[in-house]
Amino acid sequence: MAEQTQPWAERTVEVPPQPDGGVPPQRDPYRRGVAQVGARAPRTEPFPTVEHAPTGTGWPGEPVPRQPLSWHVARLKRGGEWSFAGALFAFVCWGIWAISGGGDLVGPVVIFVLSLLVAAGLFTLARLLGRVVLERQLGRVRRTARGAHLVTAVFLTGLGVAFLQQTQWIMDAWNWLTN
User: How much is the pTM?
Assistant: First the structure.
């Protein structure tokens, strides 16, 4: 056998041939088309299963836990910046209209308060409609009130524009700019 020059190489040992071949005799010789089958293992019974309908609230029949009032209020506040921006725009436009009209401010204040009550009713209607359509019909969970706040903001912005349209000097300036 030649010496290996690499220190990492594996060294082999030569074994002289043996007359028996070094192969142990087989217990059962191979026979074509016959498979050896062992003894059958005893079958085990599976564990009994309990039917569980996933409701998302725990076990079936368990009452749904009530959320505290602060949790509901926090959900209503999400998206409130839209309503606040619309109310601020409507208030500024109302102020321009009320001051430009001159005279007593009792009538314009009553009009503005009633307009805010209509906006609150519109918000409530949008929430109710969302509950019926999204939660009951489509099975979705609402985590915010952004849609209702956006509807309310669009209404309040339109209200502010309507106040500005009733102010004579604003309409004169608008007509002068567009012509």
Answer: 0.60
